Automatic annotation (TrEMBL):
Protein name: WD40 repeat domain-containing protein
InterPro entries per record: Quinoprotein_ADH-like_sf, WD40/YVTN_repeat-like_dom_sf
Length: 747
């Protein structure tokens, strides 16, 4: 029997409640039922208007609502900054009945043309200061603001542990998983668990947390072990679509398992926590109406018999979201119950749905022409509509395009070809933070590992490694440099320098660092094969791999841990010294010369003028960058500097990589910055090439057949001049490498 796809849910089994939208609030992203049977609902602003979130109590028997608080009344919102526009999937319940929740942001500041959270990430005036954590007494409306747990980060989903001292949450911008100790205010960062912005958490019967990455990889956090593990299970698109595949809804089943569904395609996975077996029940679409395009799920709830209900959003043609029923655990099939169009008010999406104790299903509509509203449905009186059911009167609505700035707001690195190598899909997450990357002979070699050294090989386009192996067992890489034509030298955590032969995938030489020397960085190889290194105190050493000897150099010291030595020729190096002094050091005679010119600095901040990267162009011009982000050139005679400015208000310039005799690429930003790749040449000057992001919501990247990526902390660059491929590596766990053929310049 074919489903009647044109019928609406009958009006006589529903009740419509309009939620306040007079100021432009058009969404709800938290709708929850407390242990004492009270409903709470957050009304939010989405995208186009500078609004702050509101929290209401909702009374299911009457549909009435009561305002508890407006975030604008409890938190000082600077009119130039992005406001806390949402409370998003973060409401939970403390043992004493109070609510805990956090704000989130997807709305612009009043002066912005659109919401640009990444573009303004480091801007102190127009950016987002960070989400605030609040504890709310629903009986007195008292709001206790606990502050901003992670500066600049937007909290995107949160949940209390079984131990209510701890509140766990996810970060939108960085994709990290965090824990806040409510007694000590200590925040623990567990690292990256998603490319970015995955919001849903769920707990099993033993209090273990489950979440997923943006590309559908499911992970678990066990509070007793205090560790995250990759469950090696991921949501699979039936057509190989590269869209949002993160887990978005879950239910605890009567048999102790978790029923989890991903955002697009809607695969239903039943995960058994004790065995970690995954039972795949299929997809949410109607069996007699398979979709051509990915279909979305909106809301998920189960009745007393654990028959599940959810919203189904089809993308093949215009259609409001429809309500679907599925007796999934008993082998049933999805049943169409009708379109959600109360009184002709088409629903574009259902954010959440909850059954009350009387068996009435309450669904919250968002992001439509009439949003937000609650539709209460007596599903016991609802059956799949037959051929004679009344046809819904549909007036198509398409959400306006709020991208008022358009493509000039895009931040990704533009290139002829872009391909992601998702290391997190092939290695343990802890081993995917890349320390070094090298490109040659059509192959990308990456050095990584937390406890040992992994060497991973790939070509320039594949999403899978060609090979991956451990080349050193006794320690992990700390610092790496290219050595010769086919080797990499790695300083290791066990106090050695190992030389890795890339083609044979083996360590050829392992040199023991003297016991009284704690090296921190390898800088470069001299023409005679000796290696230049420095320790934590800034002392500089020569290491001869052929003999294993170490020698400390006199009259040279690096002033900061981020400072580097720039190799000028066979014996001379450039470095910064005290404050903004600049020196030339001759390794052969161990003599330093202070130059009559200074490292460019910001007035009053010469203490941040350390040289953190540099390279020498073909004509002898030195191009270098500082900890404060200033880029400058030094004439071949070392007598005159030209300053080219800085990219942002903070962030060092580093990882200078020669593209040709006239051009270098480099990295802007440290571990807390949103890293960019830049270029410098005489012709173009200082150019921001963009961020290593492969985000399919971007119209320019939507149809690129590769995985998503969002590298926040860039650890390494490699460039293959013969093939014109640029490789950008992630320095965080859950790492990846993005490869670019023919990088394009934005201007």
């Amino acid at each position: 029997m074919k489903s009647n796809l044109h019928a609406a849910i009958p009006e006589e089994v529903t009740r419509f409640t309009q939620l306040p939208n007079g100021q432009g609030h058009n969404a709800v992203w938290d709708f929850v039922l407390s242990p004492d049977n009270r409903f709470y609902i957050s009304v939010c602003g989405e995208n186009e208007k500078p609004l702050t979130a509101l929290l209401y109590e909702y009374y299911p028997k009457t549909g009435e609502i009561r305002l508890i608080f407006d975030v604008a009344k409890v938190w000082i919102v600077d009119s130039q900054q992005m406001p806390p526009s949402k409370i998003h999937t973060s409401i939970d319940f403390l043992p004493d009945g109070r609510l805990i929740m956090a704000t989130h942001n997807t709305a612009p500041a009043p002066g912005h043309k659109q919401w640009m959270y990444e573009q303004h990430y480091e801007d102190p005036w127009e950016g987002y200061p960070g989400s605030i954590l609040m504890i709310v007494n629903p009986d007195t409306n008292e709001v206790q603001v606990r502050g901003i747990p992670v500066p600049r980060e937007s909290m995107y989903g949160g949940m209390l542990g079984n131990d209510p001292r701890y509140y766990y949450f996810l970060g939108y911008m960085r994709g990290h998983f965090y824990r806040l100790d409510l007694e000590t205010n200590e925040v623990k960062d567990y690292g990256k668990v998603s490319e970015f912005s995955s919001c849903r958490l769920v707990k099993d019967d033993k209090g273990r947390f489950y979440g997923s990455s943006y590309t559908g990889g499911i992970w678990r956090y066990d509070p007793e072990r205090d560790e995250i593990e990759d469950l090696k299970t991921r949501f699979i698109s039936p057509n190989g679509n590269k869209h949002r595949r993160q887990f978005i809804f879950a239910l605890n089943t009567p048999r102790g398992s978790l029923l989890m569904i991903d955002n697009m395609d809607g695969e239903v996975i039943e995960l058994h926590p004790e065995t970690l077996e995954a039972t795949r029940h299929g997809y949410i679409h109607l069996r007699d109406h398979p979709p051509l395009n990915p279909c979305g799920i909106g809301g998920l709830a189960a009745d007393e018999n654990f028959v599940i209900y959810y919203g189904l959003k089809m993308q093949d043609e215009y259609s409001p979201i429809r309500l679907v029923r599925w007796d999934v655990l008993n082998g049933g099939e999805p049943e169409n119950l009708g379109l959600v169009t109360p009184g002709g008010k088409d629903s574009q999406y259902i954010c959440e749905m909850i059954f009350d104790r009387d068996g009435i299903l309450h669904m919250v509509d968002v992001c439509g022409e009439f949003s937000p509203y609650v539709l209460a449905v007596d599903v016991k009186r609802l059956q799949p509509p037959g051929a004679d059911a009344k046809t819904a009167q549909i007036r198509p609505y398409y959400e306006p395009d709020y991208n008022g700035v358009g493509s000039p707001a895009f931040m990704h690195i533009r290139a002829e070809t872009t391909r992601t190598l998702p290391l997190h899909q092939h290695l343990d997450w802890k081993d995917t933070a890349v320390k070094h990357v090298r490109a040659m002979y059509g192959t990308v070699y990456s050095v990584a590992g937390k406890e040992r050294i992994y060497l991973v090989e790939s070509d320039y386009t594949s999403g899978d490694p060609a090979a991956s192996c451990v080349v050193y067992e006794a320690g992990a890489p700390v610092s790496c440099i290219d050595v010769g034509d086919e080797r990499v030298a790695a300083l290791t955590t066990d106090g050695r320098i190992v030389l890795i032969d890339l083609c044979s995938r083996a360590v050829g030489t392992a040199i023991a660092v003297p016991a009284d020397t704690e090296l921190a960085r390898l800088h470069f190889e001299l023409d005679d094969g000796r290696l230049v290194a420095s320790d934590r105190e800034g002392a500089v050493y020569l290491c001869d791999p052929s003999s294993g000897s170490f020698r400390s150099l006199d009259h040279i010291r690096l002033e900061t841990s981020d400072a580097v030595l720039v190799k000028l020729d066979a014996n001379r190096v450039l470095l910064s010294a005290n404050y903004d002094e600049m020196r030339i050091y001759d390794i052969a005679v161990m003599r330093a010369e202070t130059l009559p010119i200074r490292v460019p600095s910001i007035r009053g901040r010469a203490f941040n003028a350390a040289i953190t990267g540099g390279a020498v162009l073909g004509d002898g011009t030195v191009v270098a960058g500082t900890y404060d982000g200033l880029l400058f050139t030094l004439t071949p005679d070392l007598r005159r500097t030209t300053v080219y400015g800085r990219l942002y208000s903070a962030g060092l310039l580093r990882n200078f990589t020669k593209v040709s005799q006239e051009e270098v690429f480099g990295v802007y930003g440290g571990e807390r910055d949103a890293g960019h790749v830049f270029s410098f040449s005489r012709d173009r000057g200082f150019v921001d090439l963009g961020r290593p992001r492969v985000i399919k919501d971007n119209s320019e990247l939507r149809n690129v057949d590769t995985e998503w990526a969002s590298i926040h902390y860039i650890s390494a660059l490699a460039y293959a001049q013969e093939d014109d491929w640029l490789c950008v590596a992630s320095g965080e766990g859950y790492g990846c490498i993005v490869r670019y053929k023919g990088v394009a310049f934005p201007y």
